């Protein structure tokens, strides 16, 4: 029987694993955050009152088996001297247009999934735009994903609130159903506080993650994130995730054991002062999880990334156990 894998996170980290994963015989679902308020996504969220489309766009492209020329058009971003359309991606505009035409973001995504010939399913964690909030370890309160990221502060916890005051947050029923029906649930890779946790803290999602019988996997980041996770070990990343989940739910932690060359990462290019995440398998074991420590490193573009093929192979093997 084809294994059902659900991946939870944002539109930058997940595609690295999704692209090779769809080459396997798996039933893949991506659940994507709706708290992005920066760039084209943020502008469309504010002016059209839809969920931010950027992460969904990137996931659709990662799952697509369609024509490359169409995908290039879908990903095309207008130049900064184009005034009104500056920095907007064509795919973001199409998602906004189809949402307005159909009156439902899920229907808009389904139509685009058909056009792009995607192999899998993509669901927003909620069908309404949400605002990410954070409390720093020093007691300061921050609002908005972009502001939280830019603050470079050590964070204690995050939560989401509706964009419209007084509105109740409702998790996507498709996302909840996918979680409850999954064989394997995968968190990340991606920013812990602004890509992964904004999904986990949505009411209904946390409860589904506590109820599901699926094995749950956290793909630990290779590098720390400036301010937010400075000096965090893989076990400390795990502890924050489990705390927001409300229980020690993670069964496996995938952690890279290959050293990142000291002079390879261009911190100026990436705007990030970071260090390699240190492994702490004993603390992971104490949290009820198993550490799977391997060479998951891919060095490219003056940065340290996950080798998607190697990670995908391990994920598939976990569904076979």
UniProtKB/TrEMBL annotation:
Its main location: cytoplasm. One of its GO terms (cellular component) is cytoplasm. One of its GO terms (molecular function) is LPPG:FO 2-phospho-L-lactate transferase activity. It is found in: Cytoplasm. InterPro entries: CofD, CofD-like_dom_sf, Gluconeogen_factor. Transmembrane segments: none annotated. It comes from the Bacteria. Keywords: Cytoplasm. One of its GO terms (biological process) is regulation of cell shape. PANTHER family: GLUCONEOGENESIS FACTOR-RELATED, UNCHARACTERIZED PROTEIN YVCK-RELATED. HAMAP family: Gluconeogen_factor. Required for morphogenesis under gluconeogenic growth conditions. Belongs to the gluconeogenesis factor family. This is Putative gluconeogenesis factor. It comes from Fructobacillus tropaeoli.
């Amino acid at each position: 029987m084809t294994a059902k894998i659900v991946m939870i996170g944002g539109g930058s980290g997940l595609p690295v694993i999704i692209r090779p994963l769809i080459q396997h015989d798996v039933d893949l679902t991506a659940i994507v955050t709706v708290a992005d308020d920066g760039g084209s996504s943020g502008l469309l969220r504010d002016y059209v009152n839809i969920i931010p489309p950027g992460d969904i766009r990137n996931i659709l492209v990662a799952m697509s088996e369609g024509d490359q020329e169409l995908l290039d058009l879908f990903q095309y971003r207008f130049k900064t001297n184009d005034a009104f359309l500056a920095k907007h991606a064509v795919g973001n505009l199409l998602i906004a247009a189809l949402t307005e035409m159909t009156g439902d973001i899920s229907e808009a995504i389904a139509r685009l999934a058909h056009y792009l010939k995607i192999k899998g399913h993509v669901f927003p964690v909620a069908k309404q735009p949400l605002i990410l909030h954070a409390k720093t370890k020093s007691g300061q309160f921050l609002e908005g994903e972009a502001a939280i990221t830019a603050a470079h502060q050590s964070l204690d916890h995050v939560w989401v609130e509706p964009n419209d005051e007084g509105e109740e947050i409702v998790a996507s029923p498709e996302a909840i159903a996918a979680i409850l029906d999954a064989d394997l649930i995968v968190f990340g890779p991606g920013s812990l506080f602004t890509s992964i946790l904004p999904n986990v803290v949505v009411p209904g999602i946390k409860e589904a993650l506590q109820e599901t019988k699926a094995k749950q996997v956290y793909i630990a980041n290779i590098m720390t994130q400036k301010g937010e996770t400075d000096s965090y070990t893989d076990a400390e990343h795990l502890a924050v995730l489990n705390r927001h989940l409300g229980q020690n739910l993670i069964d496996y932690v995938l952690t890279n054991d290959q050293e990142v060359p000291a002079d390879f990462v261009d911190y100026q290019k990436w705007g990030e002062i970071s260090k390699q995440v240190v492994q702490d398998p004993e603390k992971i074991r104490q949290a009820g999880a198993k550490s799977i420590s391997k060479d998951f490193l891919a060095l490219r573009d003056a940065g340290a990334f996950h080798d998607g093929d190697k990670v995908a192979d391990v994920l598939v093997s976990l569904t076979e156990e």
